Every structure is written in C-alpha cells, then in structure tokens.
Amino acid sequence: MESVSVLIPTLLRPLVEGRSEVVLPADAPMTVGGLLDRLSEGRPLLERRIRDETGALRRYVNIYVGGEDVRRLELLETPVEPGDTVMVIQSVAGG
Amino acid sequence: MNDQATTVLAIGTKKGLWLATSRNRRSWTLSDPLFLMQEVPGVGIDTRGGRTRILVGTRSEHWGPSVVHSDDLGATWTEPERGSIGFDPDDGAALERIWQIQPDSQSRPGVVWAGCEPISVWKSTDGGEHFELNRGLWDHPHRSEWGAGYGGAAAHTVLPSPADDSIHVAMSTGGVYRSLDGGTSWEPRNRGISAYFLPDPQPEFGQCVHKIARDAGNPRHLYAQNHHGVYATPDAGDTWTSIAEGLPSDFGFVMLAHPRRPGTAWVIPLKADGERIPPDGELAVHRTDDGGGSWSRLHRGLPTREYNAVLRDAAAVDAADPVGVYFGTRGGSVYASADEGESFVEVASHLPDVLTVRAAVVPG
Known about the structure:
- The complex is a heterodimer.
- By secondary structure, chain A is an alpha+beta fold.
- Helices cover about 15% and strands about 30% of the residues of chain A.
- Chain B is mainly beta.
- Chain B contains one helix and 29 strands.
- Classes of the chains: A alpha+beta, B mainly beta.
- Chains A and B meet through helix 2 of A and loops of B.
C-alpha cells in the first residue's frame, strides 16, 4: 500500500512517540485537513498544537506539501497524493 | 509565621515560569525556568483540601494555549489530553490566552474559575483539570460592544464571593460585571466609574478596569484600579466612589486586598496612561488601612530608580500572618515583603517581563 510521510518538528515529537516521521497508509488522494485528522487520531494533544478549536491551522504553524506552503495553495483543502511528503514546521515568530 | 512552612512564589513571565521558595520570606531560592519560551499569563495556587496544586496557564506562540497543573510543587506536570479549556466548534471562537486562574473559596472544594481571552469565564469543578464555558456571560447581549485593550480583550479577573452566590468579573474593556446567581446571569456594575476615553464618560459599561479585589471583612466591599481611577464600592458594585485622593496618581494596574483584615488594600501607581512608569521613576507600593480614606507610601528595599511598569496580575498576597506582598515588573525584577509592604527584598532580577505572580504557604 502506498503511504504519505509526515515530518514532525522536534517540539512535537514527544506527542508521536518520539518519532521524526510518521508514515500514514494512503491509497487514495486526500486533503491536508483529512491527513491531519488521521495523524491526530488518538493524539488529541497533537491536534490542539496544530489546529485550534475552530479547526483552523494555528497562525505560526506551517505545513508544506511537496515543498510548497499550503497557505499559498488551498490551506487545509490542499490535496495530498499517495507518495507525498508533508512537513509540519514551526514558523519563525516571537522575540 | 510557622517555621515548618515554606512559601512558594510562582512567577509567570513572557518566556516561562519560575518558582521561588523561602522559609522566612526574606531569602529566596529560585528554580530553573519551566515552560521556557512559553508565555505564562495566568497562575493559580490551590491549597484547599490539604493539597497544593499549582495551575499554570501557558501560551506558546506556535502551539497555542493550555492549562497544566502540578501537585508536587513543580516536580512533575500534567496536561489533560483534550485540554482543560476549549470552545466548542459551534462557538466559532478559539482560546487565545488564560489571564486568570482563581480557586474558589473553602466552601466550594474543587471549584476553580478561569478568565480568558477572548472575553470569557470558565468554571471547573474538578480542581482545574476541565473547565466549562460560562454561557451566561458568553451569550451576553453586550458582547459585541466589548472592546480590546492594548493587551487583548479578556476577562482578566474573576472574584467569586465566599459569602453568597455572587461573582464579579472584570474585563478590559467592558468594565465590571456581576452575577448574583452563581454565573447564570450577569449585569454591568460600573456606576460612578469614569471612562474618560469614551464619548459618554459615565457609560453603563465599557470602562477599562485593570484589576478588582474583594475586601476580606465585608465581601460586598470591593476595590478597583481602573485606567485612570481608583475606586471602592460598599455595595457589591452598585455604586463606586473614588479613593484616589492621597495617591500620587490614579493610574496603574494592580489592586490587592488583605486576605483577613478589613479595609486594607495595596496599589502600585504608575504616572499616567501616556507615561506608564512609576511616578518620577520612584517605585513604591501604596497601602490603605481604612478602605481608601488614606494611603501610606511604602518603598523600603525597592530600587531608587525604576522605569518599568507592574502589570495587573503581577502582584499578589499570601495568607500568612503578617501578610506577604509580592510583585514583579516588566523589567523582570520580583520583590517580596514579609511585613505587609513595610519593606521588600528582591527575589529575582533580569527575568523576562513578569505577567503574574502567586504565593502560597505550604507545609514542609
């Protein structure tokens, strides 16, 4: 079965059993939102870190699909294909 | 003070939490930073029921806000998996910041209140592990007219009365709201408080209240530090009158009340809205022992020059005898008084901006 690889930033790794990468089976296209739903299944703390209660991506969390920032694409509706690599990255923010 | 007791001082800053401990409230030991790089705008220490629980509202710029707690003085921390405070999807809002964590009185064990941004009040009945949104205030018809102060639109003070089912909430901007029925319904209670920055300077609501505190001797007597204006009410907020005479300025953020002695309260004046520094750069705490009729300027042990402000929640009292008074500045200095403000020692310096402090005397 094909899969999608999600790269996890250091600060969130304790929430995915210490892994830097989570591989999710994917034999059909999905959206970034759908991918996050599956990533967060059984991991409510991870869900809260990435999206707020309204379901919106937190302001300083960036997600890249195939190297492209989803904010320049279709945000959580951005399509993810089997075989894609999705990166979750904290943006540069704060002082 | 009991020699077998330790005072714990929790210091929430712009970039983490520090815990200071002392056996005599004069020499202090400061912990390493906790939750480094997370903002800590709200802390509560709940000593009811023979347990000391430190509740901390954190906020990561990246990963959002959360409430965590420790029952072992900070050695280990627990974060409920699904979060302690969170809106329902139908509410169309997301929690931004936890400004206040307020354990209720002894007669209501397990009840803890939280005041948050966006303007909302939350109640927990399990010691602060899970909170429910107070719908009465959230659905209030005034909501759309409440505004945001510089720090954001928040319910920053929640004061449940130990005597009855009344609760006072202070919000910036919106003013003071009171519930007489445990939080089911709310009405503004700002008569007599000026809002000089609005077209109508005496509106029903819309005042920029910075902090309120409840008098120990008479729970219907409250004090308020406003955005210019220091007030007291003898009737649970029905009418407010100025008690600013005798202070060097009526601006500031802090208002503290003595936990036992009626009529005693503390403020830390700043010069003005347009000049948010101690008057003449001379930091001082002012205490009244007669309900605001007169004030004493207290500064022994404080620096002779200080140009940083003290924010609304960055001051607290403990429950010891004599009462300890604590505050921190935006310059990262923290001061403690073991004698009700007569003299201070420096607990810490060069921390990030101090947003909140809370102190409790614990066994051991």
